[in-house]
Amino acid sequence: MNNTHQDTQAAKWWHTKIIDMKPGEIRYHGYAIEELIGRISFADMVWLMTRSELPSQAQSALLEAALMSAVDHGPQAPSIAIARMAMTCGSSLNNAMASAVNVLDDVHGGAGEQAVELYQTIHARLQRGEPLTNATAEGLDAWREKHGKIVPGFGHRFHPIDPRAPRLLQLIDEAAERGEISGQFASIAREIEQQLRKAKGKPIPLNIDGATAAVYAELDFPAPLARGLFCLSRSVGILAHAWEQKCQGGRNKGPIPKGWLWQYQGHPPRHLEGKKSVNN
């Protein structure tokens, strides 16, 4: 086997349309890195890497807003708490961040992806000519039948109204008024909110996951990428908290303060009787 054939085989082992690199040259989707540095934002780069093209100014602004809106929610959020606990166990920053990102799964971190999926199923019904009210009701029924009663992106354990959600919807509305996006996914989110209120007899407001999902759906991101984008966003908060904990110090901090104990619900106290010693 000659070297040319080996080089060809090696080149075919991995193939990508994302990056072209050789000595002295780095290009992302055809753009030289030295032309991008200082000219595009980090949000632009995220778009380029995931979508193969640079975004418009309007698309970049909405993506930027969604990414920055979800960076942190305090140590009560499992991912943040895990990052801080990991640092008190002597972990490095990268290990603490990895530990935290690994719990951004279906329950904590996955609601945005799920909300995009829900919005898209309702949007597909609208495209077939169904009225918004009917399309939303049918979409919710289909979602519950498949996934259970919880509607992703709505309701919050701490906030009667999530302060992040109205602002993101406002930005969607403003972009829609300028003709930059359709605005249909914000309408879908609001209709879901109304129908949940009627069904429950109380407000079940849009939360950060549902609001960012409306942005990502308006920007035509596939649903799985919505979870990846949330991981990128929350990683900023994870890094900040891990670094703060390192600077604060502390050793082996668990999820509850020292002196607070969990509730034991097992067998009452008992004694070992009538057992032979393992040494006999």
Explain what this protein looks like in three dimensions:
The protein has 280 residues and is mainly alpha-helical. It folds into two domains: 17-55, no CATH class; 56-253, Cytochrome p450-Terp, domain 2, CATH 1.10.230. 57% of the residues lie in helices and 4% in strands. It has twelve helices and three strands. It has a three-stranded antiparallel β-sheet with strand order 1-2-3. Helix 5 packs antiparallel against helix 6 and helix 7 (111-127) packs across helix 11. The termini are far apart.
Q: What proportion strand?
A: under 5%
Distance between the termini: 67 Å
- Major beta sheet, strand line-up: 1-2-3
Q: CATH superfamily of the largest domain, please?
A: Cytochrome P450-Terp, domain 2
Number of strands: 3
Count the helices. How many? Answer: 12
- CATH level-1 class of the largest domain: Mainly Alpha
Query: Are there runs of 5+ residues with pLDDT below 50, and where?
Result: none
Q: Name the structural class.
A: mainly alpha
Quick structural overview:
This protein has helices spanning 3-13, 33-36, 42-51, 57-69, 78-88, 93-101, 111-127, 132-147, 164-177, 184-200, 208-218, 223-248; strands at 19-22, 25-28, 31-32. By secondary structure, it is mainly alpha-helical.
Task: Lay out the secondary structure.
Blueprint: H1 3-13, E1 19-22, E2 25-28, E3 31-32, H2 33-36, H3 42-51, H4 57-69, H5 78-88, H6 93-101, H7 111-127, H8 132-147, H9 164-177, H10 184-200, H11 208-218, H12 223-248
Antiparallel strand pairs: 1-2, 2-3
Helix pairs in contact: 3-4, 4-9, 4-11, 4-12, 5-6, 5-12, 6-12, 7-8, 7-10, 7-11, 7-12, 8-10, 9-11, 10-11
